[in-house]
What we know:
The complex is a heterodimer.
Chain A: H1 7-33, H2 58-67, H3 69-100, H4 104-118, H5 125-134, H6 140-150, H7 152-164, H8 168-176, H9 181-192, H10 194-210, H11 213-219, H12 226-232, H13 242-262, H14 264-277
Chain B: H1 2-6, H2 9-34, E1 37-38, E2 46-47, H3 51-58, H4 62-91, H5 99-107, H6 114-129, H7 140-168, H8 172-180, H9 185-196, H10 198-213, H11 217-222, H12 234-243, H13 249-275
Antiparallel strand pairs in B: 1-2
Helix pairs in contact in B: 3-13, 4-7, 4-10, 5-7, 6-7, 7-10, 8-9, 10-13, 12-13
InterPro entries (chain B): ABC_transporter_permease (IPR051393), MetI-like (IPR000515), MetI-like_sf (IPR035906)
Protein name (chain B): L-arabinose transport system permease protein AraP
Pfam family, one (chain B): BPD_transp_1
Amino acid sequence: MERRNTASNRVVFLALFILAALFLAPVLVVLMNSFKGRFYISETAFLPPTGSMFVGLDNYFNGVDKTAFFNAFGYSLYITVFAVLLICLFNSMAAWYITRIKSTYSSALYYLLIFSMIVPFQMVMFTMSKMADMLHLDTPTGVVVLYVGFGAGLSVFMFSGFIKSVPIDIEEAAMIDGCNPIQVFFRVVFPILQPVVITVAILIAMWTWNDYLLPYLVIGQKYRTIPIAVQYLRGGYGSKDMGAMMAVLVLSMIPVIVFYLSCQKYIIRGVVAGAVKG
Amino acid sequence: MQKVLKKYVAFFTFPTLLAFIIAFLAPFLMGVYLSFTEFTAVTDSKWVGIENYIKAFTSGGDFLNSLWFTTKFTVISVISINLLAFLLALLLTRGVRWTNGFRTVFFMPNLIGGIVLGYIWQLIINGILYQSGVTLTTDPKYGFWGLVVLMNWQMIGYMMIIYIAGIQNVPTELRDAAAVDGATPIQELFHVTVPMVMPSITICLFLTLTNSFKLFDQNLALTAGAPGKQSEMLALNIYNTFYGSIHSEGIGQAKAVIFFLLVTVIAFIQLRLTRSREVEN
């Protein structure tokens, strides 16, 4: 921070400025093409939508219609919100128990959860989706249940890392004052966990909102979340409606960008904390 | 407290345990077992020993091809992402104007989902290739470099954030001492900054390595493996073996087990190698 306005910093600024423009360009090109007639898109991807190319909001009406986009938005939102809530609730409860009780059960569960973090999804995708069918979990609520199990590795790891640094004295004092463990957890422990709850909530929200394969395999035939809706537009090979695709891409990015700009501070802090732990 | 809390084991851990068994533990164990059997649903399995593992490598050769494709992609992506992210982190810790704005822009692609990213880059790359009369799926090399560019765009900002945090943690006295001792900026970089941010480098290498190796959504959206199966990465190859061909679920599951073992081995080797080079502080 010591050298602010040197000549070299001006060069660096210019380089960063050009690079930032390049980083934004793909998103802007998609936005621009979303106002173009479908047959112009592949041929003139980098020209602005002028004259006969301009079709107004047609692609948006078309895309929303073809993919039932607002239903997809609803399913994505439902799954993400409930996955975040239940993971933060159930996994923090489990993490507290595992951290405070030293037993074979605790450490077995802990290491199994950690182990699940490195296993690639392809290893379990077939058997998991069959299992979900058998247990009638092939609904958006069922997907939430699967996320609670599949997300448990990361979130229990993060929660218990934090709980280890919380002095046990406060909890014991509450116990002596007559609280039972359920009261201790909800009145004393959970409020202390707030920073790590925000981190976990952000990591889980980013994962579940963007996840394609798990919901596709489990509920993809009946319910389309946003990534499934986008992929659905691909259709048979070569037959895809590029106009509708551009519009749906823009619509899928809007919620993400709004979320990013409104809680950027927490998101960046969250992913750094998540990365450092993981 | 221990004694009282122990009575509440069901209340605190069973919701997570139950979901974990359904979503992961049972499917994982079933998956390992089924890789040694022939099956179409999970209930009609017939033991075939290691036949599926042999077939994984011998039938079609597409598995080895995807393994090679994935390996090349991973090596190039890991190197390019980390070099560029580290460079950006250095540039963004010099107190240049608009530092926060740049950080916001560079990180943004990381939040967009893989499927959406794939179609964004399909448009861009096809738009560029259109000038030369070819498309992304004319030759697997376009799909390959397309994926590399996409992955860089997605992950550079994320790694940059981690490197920035690492660089900001380097004590100023160390750099001042190096400067007093007459170190050039290059010497300072390689003898002070790099050793001090080794923990960040470990994390970033680990994240880029596993994310590149396990890539699926972006691969499916960008080329879906075309032309033929030549731009198919491992995860997509396994997916297509399960769902894209008949009576090959056993082979798909065997490939999945091999994939799991590869990911695990890579992760452990990588962690050991870089952990041993970290500076104690």
